[in-house]
Amino acid sequence: MKNKRIITLSLVIVMAALLLFGCSSTKTSSSPPATGASASPSAASAAASSASNVTTVTDFAGTTFSAAKPVKTVMGLHPIFTMLALRLAPAKVVSVDKVFTTSYLVKGSLTDLLTNLGLDQIKALPVTNTSIMQPVDPEQVLNLNPDVVVTLNKDINVAKLKDETKKPFVIVSKNTLQDYSKSMRIMGVVLGNTTEANQMADYWDNIISSISAKTDPIAAANRLNVYHCASGSIYATVGKDTIMASIVRIAGGNNLGDQISNTSNSVNETITVSMDQILKWNPDVVVANNSKQYQEIMSSPEWKAVNAVKNGRVYCQLKYGKIDGLTTIPGLIWYNAILTAPGDSSAMESYYKEAPKYYQLFFKYNITKDDLNLKQ
Fold first, then answer.
1. The pTM is what?
2. Alpha helix positions (H), 216-301
3. Rounded Cα distance, 88 and 82, in Å
């Protein structure tokens, strides 16, 4: 009888051990699988956004990277991702680009955001051209000798530069809000800082999800028609596959630029529009890129016939809430407030509440309410 008890107890212990082992194996297998080198950007996107602990990822050109092999030096050819590299691995960044200097290093720019990120060291870095505006000198790349070069999927010069330098390239994207967070995860893996990169990407995705949950149910017929001015002119707008159009839609509006987008200009951030077309659209809301554009619209006799002007629905983008670059998420929160609850101070409270959290996470900067009210 005693032996039977011992045997029974032994079997119970073995079965318990097997159950524990099985649970442990299940947890281990929940890690995201590695993506193949032939994966498309959409496949890479799915892998990169599936969990907060991404350690293997495929970029927008189908190249796979593993966090087990982070690079020692990196060169960015676009200000957004140069800034992201400076946040994730400042000691690895070998240069900044010309547009970065105007965005962050001149008077009136976003210089304050670099206060706690080593501003003096950043100012001392060599300056290159910006990939999508001017070709980058291959000799400069070779002299700086980065382990990898980071550029956009819209960079038309990348194939030539890659051939001239024989350097590995990391291809990222800023075409949509979701592309940003996927690119953050890619950068985190490449630079060996997946913890902070995934934390930032998770925050980014959570804000998008929370706003989308409120605006997705709004039918197109019930959305306000928005004319978003391009950066260079009030007589230009943005294509349907740009970050700006993406934000207008997620924020709850209809981007009027979608109507004149086609395969050749859908990612164009400056599509010329006539005044006749603007009058025909008669937008409910107009968002000026900066204070100069705002004054130009409000003082123009032609624009007085536009509903947005007549109804007081012309807005100026905010300096720390502009819907491009790394000010985009605060910009989305602000955009959602002006579209869904205009004139309601409580709607702006979400911007005032969330933006300080954002700037602390992305720039380690304590932003003030006065800062948040500054116009672009």
1. 0.80
2. 243-251, 275-281, 291-299
3. 10
